[in-house]
Model the fold of this input.
Amino acid sequence: MACFLVPAAEAVVTTVAGKVMEKKEGSHNAEGHEVKIPFTRKIGWLNNMLWGGSALLAFEHVWHGEVIAKFPFLTAAANPEDAAEMLHEMSTVGVTMALLVTTVWFGMVAVSSAMEKRMNNMAEEEKEESAS
Amino acid sequence: MTLLITIFAAVISTAVWYKNAPANDMKIGVLCWMYWGASLMWFVDAIFEYAELGAEYFTPEAADMLNDSFLGLSVVALGLVIWVVVLLIKDPRGVVRKAMISAK
Done:
């Protein structure tokens, strides 16, 4: 009914958070040859998944006639009974969607951090070997 | 069907991205993120639908399946349109900029 609104709302929050972090990060880069993906880039992955997914899901809702071009834009919002059902769907399906996408993103961040660490350790070992 | 078609689109776009990485001239990453995001969301939708319908979920009516397939293909097409718009706006190879300058 309007489940896509929950991930879309999360996308707004993460986009704003990303912009704020980008300003704070500024020109502060990783030292020397250290491999490090900036966190703003990582949060960009989440933004892209949330915005992209929400956009395509919004299209599905237009397809099914649940989103219309006139106020209140959501057909379910026209009467209280349907509105209650819509809110229930948002709080179950919508929240689960947002949670799953975020969980997958956390997994990706963990894997990329582990890979960064491994690459840096290998580079350090090579450096020590060439020095000795 | 919508979920299946979107997953196929996500896998294909990821394979194309991987083949061309680290070059990002065509912004294929945009397609990957979009299709994977939508696939995850429709996967949740499918789980809730399965919880409601049970085994019936896997035996849809032919008309529903056709409608869902049509929707899936339309979703893929919309994703491609969004990707083209992003590509032309970001213009990583400067093609649009050059074309506009030479047209002046």
